[in-house]
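User: I'm new to structure prediction. If I give you an amino acid sequence, what do you actually give back? Let's try with this one:
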Amino acid sequence: MSHAAATQTDEQQGTAPSKGATSKLPLRSFLGYAAGDAGNNLAFNMVSTFLLLYYTDVAHIDAAAAGTIFLVVRIWDGLADLLAGRLVDRTNTRWGKFRPWLLFGSLPLLLLGAAGGMLLALSGQPAEPEPSAVDVGFAQDMSVHHEQAVTMATLARERADDVAVRQLAFDIETNQRDQIGRMQGWLALWGRPPQSSGMPMQWMHEGGHQHGAMPGGMPMQGSGPMPGSGLMPGSGLMPGMADAAELARLKSSHGPEFDAEFLRLMLRHHEGGAGMARYGAEHAELAPVRGLAGNMLRSQATESELMREMLAERGLRAAPEKEGQAHFYVSDVPDSFVQTADLFLGEYRGGPVDQIAIDKY
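Assistant: Good question. You get back a string of structure tokens that encode the predicted 3D arrangement of the chain. For your 361 residues, that looks like this:
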């Protein structure tokens, strides 16, 4: 090897950068990449947070099938990232490596999406049915019913003595705030007011569904709202809702006394709203409304069972009694009798005994 060749080799191996060497990324580029990645992850995670809820509650996909979709997409995402990285690394243009894919790849995707949307619009898909009185009334009245639960749960999340009660209150507040948002969003899309201007729960008696009548078609007698409406006589409150005196007593309570009062009021609140949710699940015209009502029934049944256990641990079991509310306790009868009687009264409670609870001891 000649001296010139040796010198050239030394330069290549020494101070002169080799062909494949990489330079340090400038701070500006580093911050630009970091900001872009942060924005991408923020948008992706926000969509992913609500995607499972959309699959199960709106699209009514089975939870196991939705989980399988997530798994397959994650596997494909891992493989696609490797392929995308290889393509970007091999790209060398005057616009850089990754920028051309954003500049020239977005337009075909936009056109493809527009073409897909036009095909769906021209495919003659049947239009979604109009919301019925049940859909609108359920969204309006259940929003009001939920708002009181959120008020009590927010108070309990901040003041409850027991950690388990605070966690339960957080779950109730989170779930019911989300459900209020969905119902109010539907009302806005339907062009309907957020609250009803008429008698609450009147929609449960329209269209020939007289759930407040006694067997044989005889309406229940009593003063106050429409027979069978379930409203507290003279109060206008929907079933299970606390009146002003009860809310004031809850706010003035502290420590274990507050926990017990919250559990008793919230348990009654859940049980009182079950009839409205059940009616919505069975009679609403729109599938999303029926799905939300059914989800309320399932989730609140679980929470109600938990509150009964918490009350039992404290030696308590009944909600605070008030005017127009009665509790009957029976013993030495089969559980099936209690369940059948409770279902019967759930259909026909109204008038002066708008809430009747049968418990076995």
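You can read the tokens as a compact description of the fold. Here is one thing that stands out. Residues 1-17, 207-235, 324-333, 342-361 have pLDDT under 50 and may be disordered.
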